[in-house]
Write a structure and sequence with these properties.
Blueprint: H1 3-21, H2 29-86, H3 106-120, H4 124-129, H5 136-189, H6 194-204, H7 231-234
Helix pairs in contact: 1-2, 1-5, 1-6, 2-3, 2-5, 3-5
């Protein structure tokens, strides 16, 4: 939640407290409806803020997982590539198929890994004879899946974060409207009570962002060179 959203939420909470602590009898139907909306918006804003933060954390976690998984995947592929070069004499022409991409992009890495799985499957026995574990294809597939899961986590987190951000803006607007509806009713009821109107005005006000006073730079004074005249020389 940004600073403007936080200040709006603070205003709504003050409005809610004022209405709860200063019961108006008999109830004003329009005020009752607007106050209920204020309460609902407070809950919605807090939920949206939680989703925004959770989505951001989820997305960042996915980014970190992609980095570590991609590193492990590339290291595993290097072992398979090295083995393929050793098998070149028995299986001429296989080395280029197992070559790692020069690009460091994730799509290129995943595409290469999937191509290597397909190419190594019929030659699995030869790779195992060269010292790779019998489960090397399964382990390679697990690394590919782990990377794809990390990508999904990153994307899902980003979507959750965007949804939370959009909800904050929409719900804040609804809250401001509800507070405005409350304003007319409260002012009408307390029209003859200056102290209550002052308290309500404080509750209803959305704080403004602090303004930093810009540093005032005093321009250097223009020095006028004035010749000093010796009275004796003047005569």
């Amino acid at each position: 939640m940004n600073a403007n959203g936080t200040r709006t939420l603070d205003m709504l909470k003050r409005v809610n407290r004022f209405i709860l602590e200063n019961t108006i009898t008999p109830p004003i139907p329009r005020l009752t409806a607007a106050a209920t909306e204020v309460t609902n918006v407070i809950t919605a804003l807090e939920t949206a803020a939680q989703n925004q933060v959770a989505g951001s954390g989820q997305s960042e976690g996915g980014v970190d997982l992609r980095v570590s998984t991609a590193r492990d995947l590339r290291a595993y592929l290097k072992n398979i590539n090295r083995t393929a070069r050793a098998l070149e004499t028995d299986h001429p022409g296989i080395s280029p198929t197992f070559r790692l991409p020069a690009s460091g992009s994730y799509p290129a890495l995943i595409a290469t890994a999937q191509a290597i799985v397909a190419a190594a499957t019929p030659l699995q026995a030869a790779f195992v004879d060269a010292g790779l574990p019998t489960t090397f294809l399964t382990e390679l597939g697990a690394l590919i899946t782990a990377f794809q899961n990390a990508t999904n986590q990153k994307q899902d987190g980003g979507i959750t974060q965007v949804l939370g951000t959009a909800a904050l803006k929409a719900k804040a607007d609804l809250g401001v409207k509800a507070a405005k509806d409350c304003d007319a009713c409260v002012r009408n009821h307390f029209r003859n009570s200056p102290e209550m109107l002052a308290a309500w005005k404080h509750a209803r006000r959305i704080e403004k962002a602090p303004v930093r006073e810009s540093e005032v730079t005093t321009p250097p004074s223009t020095l006028t060179s004035t010749a000093t005249v010796n009275p004796a020389e003047a005569n």
